[in-house]
Each structure stands twice: as C-alpha cells, then as structure tokens.
Write a structure and sequence with these properties.
Layout lengths: L2 H17 L10 H15 L16 E6 H8 L15 E9 L7 H9 L3 E7 L11 E9 L3 H9 L35 H8 L2 E7 L3 E6 L4 E5 L4 E2 L2 H6 L6 H12 L14
Antiparallel strand pairs: 1-2, 2-4, 3-4, 5-6, 6-7, 7-8
Helix pairs in contact: 1-2, 1-4, 1-5, 6-8
C-alpha cells in the first residue's frame, strides 16, 4: 500500500460526507460510515471520479455489516468464524467478485489495504446470505471503528461542523439533522402506531443489501428487520405479526422513505 491509495479512499469518503451526510444520521461513528460507503463506491465503480491509483475490478459488489450482528444471524450456518471469532465494533466487508478471477483481484486488496483492514475469510459465495451471488467468490475483511482513517477523514471534513443547526446543535453532527425528501410526511400526519415508532429512540442501519436492516432500541437490544420479506426478530412480530408491521418495521420503512438510511438495494438516498 502507498499513501496515494489512502488519499483516494479519503477523497471519496469526503465527497460522500459532503453530498450524502444523511446516511450517517443514525450512527455513532459518522466517519466510519462515510468510509464504508467510500469503499463500496470505489470498488463498484460508482465514485464521482475513479482515481487511477485504484485498480478497477469488473463485476465486483460489496456488502457489509457489523461482525457481531452477522454472527448473531448466521453463526450456526456458515464457517466464517472458525478461524477468527466475531469481533466487537468491527465492520465485516464481504466483497464478491467473478469466480474465474483468482487469486483475489488486486483492486480489492489495494483498497482494503488502504483502510488497513485485514483479510479473514475467502471462499465460494454460495453460502448463507449469498443467494444472489451463486457462482461467485467472496473475500472478507475486518475493519475496526476508531481507526486511523477515521481520524484523518475527521480532519478533512471538520469544516462541515462549523455552522450551527436550527436546533442549537452542530450542523456537522449528522445525528442532529433531519434531512427529508420533498414528498416526506410530517410526523403529525402519520398513523398513530407509526408516529410512536418514529418518535421512539431507535437507530437504524443497513445490515446487508437485499433489505436487511438492524434496529437498535434505547435499551441496547438489537433487532433484524427484513423490509422486503416483511419480518422482524422482535417478540412482537414473532408472536403476533401485527397488521402494518411491528414498530421496528414501521421505523425502518419510514427512514427509507425519508432518505435517512440507504435503500434496500444498498444505494445511497437521492442527494438533497
């Protein structure tokens, strides 16, 4: 790895922070989220400008989630944790690429090395959670929160926090911002159960492409919502399956519509 590779990742993360800061609204580590999306955009060829120093990989796709959350969902079904047990406060990147490209394409290794992530698993993608990646391979990397790249990015975007938000908080603290789409609905106009779900203290993040989200309640409990398959791991949904969904499903649906979290296909919300 050279410093120019890291600069390429930081530059794309800075663009994400400036143009799509709503993706980190519900996270405790905004810079970590910006960098995760920088990796996704660079490897999938969606970056505003692809730097020459980042070799491109045809047919690559990227998924990611908290390592512990993935383990809680698939720990008994896959072999990923046989060598390295689930890690707290770590992102697991799952990078898929064509089966005929061996060894792991250099572009993937270059970008992940720039983040100082470490490789922990490699194999056929026909495993749990990879139904749409049959006949492909995947390689996994672990990357901790609070890393050097986050500190470097924070220095680059510190000017974003200079303006004072209407609620008295800092505009740069994305948790204090409510960025909504043109067609958004006021909380006062929502159905009562949805209104309560929106007003309750919860955080929502995309767990995996395909519509799987993680909801963390104020109690610290975490639930997995499949917004496409219409399911939730909470006891309310498991026992009653209430009409319109449990409060976690309602909250995820609302935040997707408001553009506060990535869409089920993993794409960023429209720029506001």
């Amino acid at each position: 790895m050279t410093e120019r590779h890291l600069r390429a990742v930081l530059a794309e993360a800075e663009r994400v922070a400036e143009q799509y800061d709503q993706i980190a609204q519900t996270t405790n580590s905004p810079t970590h989220e910006y960098l995760r999306y920088a990796v996704l955009r660079l490897l999938e060829g969606d970056a505003n400008a692809i730097p020459e120093e980042v070799p491109q990989v045809d047919g690559v796709t990227v998924g990611y989630g908290r390592d512990q959350a993935m383990y809680d969902s698939w720990g008994s079904d896959v072999e990923w944790w046989d060598t390295v047990p689930p890690q707290d406060d770590c992102t697991r990147f799952r990078v898929f690429y064509p089966e005929d490209q061996t060894p792991v394409p250099r572009g993937i290794l270059t970008v992940m090395a720039a983040l100082r992530a470490w490789r922990v698993w490699e194999g056929n993608a026909a495993t749990c959670g990879s139904y749409d990646h049959r006949e492909r391979r995947e390689v996994h990397f672990l990357w901790p929160e609070g890393n050097l790249a986050e500190a470097l990015l924070e220095n680059r975007i510190q000017e974003i926090g200079s303006a004072v938000a209407p609620d008295g908080g800092q505009a740069g603290d994305v948790r204090d911002r409510m960025l909504v789409s043109d067609g958004s609905t006021s909380a006062d106009d929502l159905e009562p159960r949805t209104k309560r779900a929106v007003e309750e203290a919860m955080t929502v993040s995309l767990l995996a492409k395909g519509g799987r989200y993680e909801v963390e309640a104020a109690s610290g409990n975490r639930y997995e919502v499949d917004i496409i398959g219409q399911s939730c791991t909470c006891s309310d949904w498991q026992q009653r399956a209430p009409d319109g969904g449990c409060k976690h499903m309602r909250r995820v649906d609302h935040e997707i519509k408001q553009g506060q979290v990535p869409r089920p296909d993993g794409q960023l919300p429209p720029q506001v």
